[in-house]
Structure formats: structure tokens, C-alpha cells
Automatic annotation (TrEMBL):
Protein name, UniProt field: Cytochrome b5 heme-binding domain-containing protein
Keyword hit for Nucleotide-binding: no
Molecular-function GO terms, alphabetical: heme binding; metal ion binding; oxidoreductase activity, acting on paired donors, with oxidation of a pair of donors resulting in the reduction of molecular oxygen to two molecules of water
Region annotation Disordered: where it falls in the sequence: 1-29
Phylogenetic placement of the source organism: Eukaryota, Fungi, Fungi incertae sedis, Chytridiomycota, Chytridiomycota incertae sedis
Keywords (A to Z) from UniProt: Heme, Iron, Lipid metabolism, Membrane, Metal-binding, Oxidoreductase, Transmembrane, Transmembrane helix
């Protein structure tokens, strides 16, 4: 579900509220078979058909022009045909219920109402408790410090480059510091775009551009060269459907890496099945080299997303800040370094950042259960977040390097709580999972990495066995 600001406009054209001027007795009653028939997979056969989601036993139609109007774009379709109560609650303000009344089309029939699990209800109460305790309030001084600290890394990296342009070791160190700067800027953008810092969502997004693009009174996303629109769409969908095959874009890494037996079914869908089989066969050994290309891959995806989506919000800002990033980045390298030095700096900063970012992302969910869409429906929203997440045990080093995402389960269950408060909610979250026998996995950074490699090895072996059976 979206991280973008709630739109105040009451409704787009073509939608009328069913709650006003309509007698209660005339309210349409839905069965789950009707609702599930409009899931994203089935609606592809008829793009103009209604698309239903359920929130608190009420049915809403998010088909037609809803996606174009919706501040979060097509992320809402990840919940099509499903009970979206949990996803809606954690990512929307209370006032959004009033806006959704414009898309209300009926209720679940009395015999179709599904009682939320005890775990779901307890998490809802815990979320209200955390709000009352002020855990959703951010420390502005903390984030000011993070902004200034990040900028100091950028300044140090550039200063070393300018002062020692012919010293290859110094250029290498400068590249590593720039890689760390990119990584830490990514974590900071993540916080702002999750609306963890300010109550005003527009301000969060503005600073998200600042931290992601340029900085120092300009735009932030140009620092990291990741498109805000691309990232929000991708990351929101991930939060909505974590580790769900054919739904979560973060595990859609074929033909490069296969994270589950489900992914092996996609061999026939790739352009070069022979290459895919080679990569999967050796994926435990190719894992770290592949991660070094992660940042360049995401930069490429950002550019393609902006180029191919003319209707995205702030298109001019997206294009300008992406261009500005490469202007300053390549400008410094070509101005002060030799051709070989510039190449060394480029490879170190890009490859180093790819390793730093992707090694953390991979720990968050990879190697944890991957569910197909039917299996995912058997779990409520909060249970799905816990089952598919992996916490990395906290320490000063882990908290810094992962940007607080070592509290991955807590973050997924309470995504708007700022990272500096995660330690305050960890024990209660763990206790609640234990109470309801919901899996909660926490380990060290090193052991978690070996778990990821072990999963890759298992899938590699499975692919070889499948090949022998043919």
C-alpha cells in the first residue's frame, strides 16, 4: 500500500458514493467468491472489470480509473480480491476512511464475514498502545544528525579525491566512503518515504527527494540516483506482499537468482534459459559478485521506470534530479581523476554500494519462507510480515550498517515507527508472536548470510534434480 500523501480531493470522475442517498436495505452483499474473482491475476483477462478489496468487512471497488487517481498508484492492486484491512490500517491516516467512502459498493454477506485472528486483533491493540506511548513520534534532532553525518561522508570522499587524485589507494578509499554514503542515504530516504519523520506526508516526500536526489537545499534522491516514484511503487508492493511469489518484486530476480522452487518454474519464461540455468546452478558462488551490480541495476530500473511512465507524479523533478546525480557524480570523477582513476572510483563506489545495500536487503527476507498467493491468503497481514522476515540481532554496528532494518519484523508490522524507537517495541513484538505461535526469527548478521547462501544452494540442487528428471 502507498506511502504517498493522502489526497484531499473527494473522488475522481466516474465514482459515486454508495453511502449517501442509498437505503441500508439496498446495500449490495458480496460473497468471497465474487471478491476473489477480481484478483490481479484474474482481472488481467478484463482490465475494465470491477476490482474489489475488503476493509473492515466493507467492500470497495478500486478498479477503473482508481489507480490513476490513487496517490499510491497501482500498489493497491496487490491487495485485489483480498482482505486489505491490515495493509490499509498501517499505511493510511484515519481520514482516509472518509475518502474511501466514495468507492464503497457494499458489505460482506452475513455468512461471509471472516473473524480476524486473535494475533491480528492483538497487533492492532499493540499498535494503538505504541501510538499512546509516543513511539510513532520521531526525534528531529536524530534525523538532523543523520543528514549532517551523511553529508560529511560525501564531503570527505570528494575532499580525498581532490587532494590525492593520483594516489590510487586514496582514490579507492574515496570510492568506499562514497559507497557508504550512498548506502546510508538510501536508509535515510527509506525513513522519510515511510513517513517516519514528519506528520506532514508532503514534507516527508520533499525531504525524501532531498535525501535521495541532491541535498543541501536541493533535492535528495539525486544523491543516490534512485527514482522516488520507482522506489515507492516497488517497496510499497513488497510491504504489501512480502515473499509472495509472483507478487513481491524483491524476490522477482530470475533469471539471475532463484529464491524458491516456485521461481524455477520461470525458466521457460526467460529469453535465455541456458544462461538462467547456468546462473542458478552456480548461484551460491555467484551471489556476492552479483550483489556488486545491484546498485547499477536499480539505477537502470529507475531510469526506465521514469521514461516509460509519462503519468507519474513530479515527472520533471524525477528527470531533473536523476540527471543532476550523474552530472555531479561523473563530473567530479572526470574533472579530477585520470581515466584509470575514474574507472577505479566508479567501480569501487558503485560495486561497494551494491554489496552494502543488497547484503542487507537480502538478509531481510531471502532464505525465509516463500509463499504462493494461495498460501499467503491463509495468513493475516501481520502474520505474513513476521513469517517472511528475519531480524538481525541489534548492536551499534548492526544498527548503523543496516539503517535500523535489522529490526525487520518490527518495521514490517509497524512501518511508520521511526528506526530509533525500534528497540522500544522489540520485546513486546516478540512476546506477542510467541503468545500466538507465530514464527519470529532473529539471528546474527553472519549466520543470517549463511542462511541466505544455504537457501541458494538448496534451490540450486533442486534445479539439478529437476533437470535429471526430464
Amino acid at each position: 500500500m502507498p506511502f504517498r500523501p493522502v489526497v484531499k480531493n473527494p473522488k475522481p470522475d466516474g465514482h459515486k458514493s454508495e453511502t449517501n442517498g442509498s437505503a441500508k436495505s439496498n446495500t449490495r452483499q458480496f460473497t468471497w467468491s465474487e471478491i476473489e474473482a477480481t484478483s490481479t491475476i484474474k482481472r488481467k483477462q478484463n482490465g475494465n472489470a470491477p476490482t474489489y478489496i475488503v476493509i473492515n468487512d466493507k467492500v470497495y471497488d478500486v478498479g477503473g480509473d482508481f489507480v490513476k487517481w490513487h496517490p499510491g498508484g497501482n500498489v493497491v492492486l496487490s491487495q485485489a480480491g483480498m482482505d486489505a484491512t491490515g495493509a490499509f490500517d498501517v499505511f493510511h491516516q484515519e481520514a482516509t476512511h472518509e475518502i474511501m467512502a466514495n468507492f464503497y459498493v457494499g458489505d460482506l454477506a452475513p455468512g461471509q464475514v471472516r473473524k480476524q485472528s486473535d494475533f491480528f486483533n492483538d497487533v492492532t491493540r499493540l499498535r494503538q498502545e505504541f501510538e499512546a506511548k509516543g513511539y510513532y513520534e520521531s526525534s528531529k534532532l536524530y534525523y538532523l544528525f543523520k543528514l549532517l553525518f551523511n553529508q560529511s561522508m560525501w564531503a570527505i570522499s570528494i575532499a580525498i579525491m581532490i587532494r590525492f587524485p593520483t594516489n590510487l589507494f586514496a582514490v579507492f578509499v574515496s570510492g568506499l566512503i562514497m559507497a557508504l554514503f550512498f548506502q546510508q542515504s538510501g536508509w535515510l530516504s527509506h525513513d522519510f518515504l515511510h513517513n517516519q519523520v514528519f506528520k506532514n506526508r508532503s514534507l516527508n516526500k520533499a525531504v525524501g527527494y532531498f535525501t535521495g536526489n541532491v541535498c543541501q537545499g536541493k533535492l535528495f534522491m539525486a544523491w543516490t540516483s534512485f527514482s522516488v516514484s520507482w522506489w515507492v511503487n516497488k517497496h510499497s508492493t513488497h510491504h504489501s506482499t512480502p515473499n509472495v511469489h509472483n507478487a513481491d518484486p524483491d524476490i522477482d530476480t530470475m533469471p539471475i537468482l532463484a529464491w524458491s522452487e516456485h521461481a524455477l518454474e520461470l525458466f521457460t519464461d526467460v529469453d535465455d534459459a541456458t544462461l538462467a540455468k547456468f546462473l542458478v546452478k552456480y548461484q551460491p558462488y555467484l551471489y556476492f559478485p552479483i550483489l556488486s551490480f545491484a546498485r547499477l541495476s536499480w539505477c537502470h530500473s529507475s531510469i526506465r521506470y521514469v521514461a516509460n511512465n509519462p503519468n507519474i507524479a513530479n515527472r520533471f523533478v524525477e528527470n531533473a534530479t536523476l540527471a543532476l546525480h550523474w552530472i555531479w557524480y561523473l563530473g567530479f570523477a572526470t574533472r579530477y581523476l585520470s581515466t584509470f582513476g575514474a574507472l577505479l572510483w566508479f567501480v569501487t563506489s558503485q560495486g561497494g554500494c551494491g554489496l552494502m545495500l543488497a547484503s542487507v536487503f537480502s538478509l531481510n527476507h531471502n532464505g525465509m519462507p516463500v509463499l504462493d498467493q494461495q498460501e499467503a491468503r491463509e495468513h493475516d497481514f501481520y502474520a505474513l510480515q513476521a513469517i517472511t522476515g528475519r531480524d538481525v540481532l541489534p548492536s551499534i554496528a548492526a544498527d548503523f550498517f543496516t539503517g535500523g532494518l535489522n529490526y525487520q519484523i518490527e518495521h514490517h508490522m509497524f512501518p511508520s515507527i521511526p528506526r530509533h524507537n525500534f528497540h522500544l517495541i522489540k520485546e513486546q513484538t516478540l512476546a506477542l508472536c510467541k503468545k500466538h505461535n507465530v514464527p519470529y526469527h532473529a539471528t546474527t548478521f553472519t549466520k543470517g548470510t549463511f542462511e541466505v547462501l544455504s537457501r541458494l544452494a538448496d534451490i540450486s540442487k533442486t534445479s539439478l534434480e529437476m533437470k535429471k528428471q526430464k
